[in-house]
C-alpha cells in the first residue's frame, strides 16, 4: 500500500474534492486514486437513494479504463427479484459490511456473483454509506486479484468510506433540494431560489407569454365523484398539458384546483418573442388534441368528452417571492396575469378551447379569427378576443 497516496486521497475527499465538482468526475477520480494507492479495483458501484416522485435512487458503476456507467433505479426496485437476491439487501437490512470471496460456496446464493465470476472477479466487499439522518446507502468494491483483497487493501477501502459518505450526502441533499424545487415551483424558479432569491418582495419584471387554463365542468365533476377518483382524473388531465408545455419551452408555475398557470419567458431584447408565442400555440394545439382524446374509466365511473379552455396572452409580469410571514410563493402577478384569467373565463362562456388576446395575435395570429370585443373587469376599455378559426368553422357546421 502507498500510505502517502491514500492519505492524500482522504484529505482531498475531506476537503470536498474541490478539483472535481461534478459528482461523476469525483467518484471516477476517487476510484482511480484508490488504485494508485495500491487497491487493485476491477469494479466499483455506488447506490444512493433519493427523494423523487419517479426515481428510487441513483447508481454509479466504474471499471478501470472504461467510462463510468450512471443511471437511475425505479421506485419499485426494492421489490424486484434482482434486489431481493442481492448482497446489498443484507447491507440495507442490517447496515453492515458484506464480503464474499467468489470461490466461497455461500456466494452461489447471489445470482449477481455469477456475472462477476465470468468477469474474473475474485472478491467482493459492500460497505454502508451512512448519512447523518441514519439512512444507509451502499458502495461495493470488487477485485480480480488472485486470493482477493488483502487486509491492508480492505482497510484502505474502509478508510475512505466516511469521507465519501459525507461528500455524497452533501451532493445528494443538494440534488434532492433541486428536485423538490423543480417539482413544486418549476426549474426556473427553483434555480433562482437555490441561488439565494428567497426574500419576500425579491422579484423581477419579466416579459413572457402567459398560459392560463382550466377544465370545463370541474365543479359538477367534483360534486359527483369520490375525492380519490377526482384526484386521479386531475392528474391524468394535467398530464395532457404539462408534457407539451415543457417540451415547447414553457414552465408550469402553479396548479390551482383544475387551473394551470404557465409562462413562456421572452428574452429581454424581445428578439425571440414571435418564436416563443409560436411555441406556446403549438403546445396549445397539442393539449387540445390530448384532452379531446382523454377518457377516464374506473369501476362504475366512466367519463368521456373532456373539454378545457386556455387563454394565451403576452405581457409584463412581476416574477418572484410573494407571501406573508414565513410562507412565500414564487409566482408571477400583474395586470397581464389578471387579463389572461379574464380571457379564460370568456373562453368558458363561449365554449371555446383556445382564445388569445390582441397582444398575442399581433405576434402569432395564424389560424385565429376575431370573435368580438368584450368588457374586462377592471379595465376601462373592451378587449378584442380571438379564437381558433377551426373552432369557428366547426361551430358554423354544427359540430
Automatic annotation (TrEMBL):
CDD domains: CHD. InterPro entries: A/G_cyclase, Adenylyl/Guanylyl_Cyclase_3/4, Nucleotide_cyclase. Residues 209-344 form the Guanylate cyclase domain. Gene3D superfamilies: Nucleotide cyclase (3.30.70.1230). It holds the Pfam family Guanylate_cyc. PROSITE patterns: GUANYLATE_CYCLASE_2. It comes from the Bacteria. This is Adenylate/guanylate cyclase domain-containing protein. It comes from Rhodopseudomonas telluris. The lineage of its organism: Bacteria, Pseudomonadati, Pseudomonadota, Alphaproteobacteria, Hyphomicrobiales.
